[in-house]
């Protein structure tokens, strides 16, 4: 799987298929959440809840599968693999940005589970 994700991509000449798929799915998830927000604004509660449920579950499954396939959580802190810049940029820019990004991803996943539970709780009260 790692070899497949590392093959040349189709969106940018220097990108990989993994980066292209990641970008496209992030775009799809963003559009789904915006559509669900529009449904909530129009007071279409049940449709909103169902779309958010499908969106969040598919996003969580995708992120877990992608991080597992790319081994991003493990390899990102083991060394400079794949980083082509100088040591100073790696230590002072890349590592702090990566650490912040990973913390936000974990926070997002925790909040996703929380929001799902709150959505189920709210739908029980409405129906």
Question: How would you portray this structure in words?
Answer:
The chain is mostly helical and 127 residues long. The chain has one domain. The protein contains five helices and no strands. The chain has helices at residues 2-5, 17-41, 45-70, 72-75, 87-126. Helix 2 (17-41) packs antiparallel against helix 3 and helix 3 (45-70) runs antiparallel to helix 5 (87-126). The chain is elongated. The mean pLDDT is 81.
Walk me through the topology.
Elements (H helix, E strand, L loop, with lengths): L1 H4 L11 H25 L3 H26 L1 H4 L11 H40 L1
Helix pairs in contact: 2-3, 3-5
Write a brief caption for the model.
The protein is mainly alpha-helical. The protein contains 5 helices and no strands. Helix 2 runs antiparallel to helix 3.
List keywords for this structure.
single chain; 127 residues; mainly alpha; 5 helices
């Amino acid at each position: 799987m790692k070899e497949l994700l590392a093959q040349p991509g189709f969106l940018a000449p220097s990108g990989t298929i993994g980066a292209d798929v990641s970008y496209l799915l992030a775009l799809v998830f963003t559009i789904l959440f915006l559509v669900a927000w529009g449904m909530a604004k129009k007071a279409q509660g049940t449709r909103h809840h169902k779309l958010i449920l499908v969106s969040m579950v598919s996003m969580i499954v995708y992120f877990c599968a992608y991080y597992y396939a790319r081994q991003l959580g493990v390899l990102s802190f083991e060394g400079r693999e794949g980083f082509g810049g100088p040591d100073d940029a790696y230590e002072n820019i890349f590592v702090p940005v990566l650490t912040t990004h990973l913390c936000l991803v974990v926070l997002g996943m925790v909040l996703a589970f929380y929001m799902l539970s709150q959505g189920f709780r709210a739908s029980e009260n409405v129906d």
